[in-house]
Amino acid sequence: DELHETEELADEMAVKQFKKAAEKGDTYGTYALGICYARGIGVKQDYKSAFRYFELAYSKGHVEAGYNLGLMRWLGLPGIKRDVKRAEAWFRDGAGRNHLYSAYQLGRLAKYDSCGEAVDSFKKVIEFMLLGPIQSHATDAFSRREYKPALYRFIQSAFMGSKPAQYNAAFMIERKMGVDGSMVGNESEIAFQLYQQAENQKLSIATMRLADMMYKHGAYEQASEAYRKASLAKLPEAQFNLGVMHMTGKGLAMDYHMAKRNFDLAAQSEDGYIPSAIALWALRFCTPRQELCTLVFDVAYVMRGQMSYKELEIPEKQVFQRLFWEELHRLLPHHKRQSIVANLDMALVGILCFALLIVLAKLRLRRLTANTPQAHPHRD
């Protein structure tokens, strides 16, 4: 009895602390109050109050609160109106934020209406349970630059249907990272197949890479279609590359207005701003036939590889930072680099002279304004 009383006292004290935290707007305190009211911990069980606190926590981004709201709506607990459609919406939101319980419940609900969505939901749970440890080992090995074991683990997960693993394996194989044995000499074909498998599972960045490979091999019209598809997912790199194709006339009609439109879209991304700004400068001040403009544009095209990737397991931006300089070095042979350095120096001198002229013109204008007599109204 004494132990029971002590537990009750501790629960009541905990509820008081949670209330203080909730009053200060603390998300976790608000969520904890919902749990207390739902289970009758330290307070009388009250599903309506629990629902209210879960709603508050969910409005602040607490995914577990959304899951509990979905359960309460689905089950129609006392005082809570049963609403399966609303419950499904909460589970779908949670599944989209990688909450496994939400994904599982969404699969249970969706299997009666949408087999495809049910399969995707159950697959997400299975991938986490079975493939999570494998992909974690792969990512760790990749970070240590142990590419062979990393590639082996990614391929292992890829064959089990993981779309991030399919993408990551293709990414590494395309760049010959950790490749050996029968894959040597067949890197492009294997990478293309893996990218296709990931694209079939609606991984938009895989569509982007397929487009890159098509462009590289001269299939410009097919590449433009793939870039358009990827740009619908608001991938800044795809938007940038569509701008490239409109500017150069490869695969698309040469159209500077459409090129600018796509560069502007890519520039809205934080990572895409700098390469897009460089490309817009080239688009505005020179034509693609000019050597200096071609260099500036090529640099922007290489830099576009550093744009953001949110769907991947691999620390891809680190890889691109290394590959960027390698590709830039390959892009510019020694004799061309020397010629371009001279051109860049001349361009820089020209810009500085132009800026100096503007400053001198402003100073002269101020002096003229200061020396001009002011007209005053005549007073009788």
From TrEMBL:
Q: Where are the transmembrane segments?
A: 340-361
Q: Alphabetically list the UniProt keywords.
A: Membrane, Transmembrane, Transmembrane helix
Pfam entry (one): Sel1
UniProt key word Nucleus = no
Concerning InterPro entries, the annotation shows:
Sel1-like (IPR006597), Sel1_AlgK (IPR050767), TPR-like_helical_dom_sf (IPR011990)
To which protein family does this belong? Belongs to the sel-1 family.
Protein name (Swiss-Prot/TrEMBL)? Uncharacterized protein
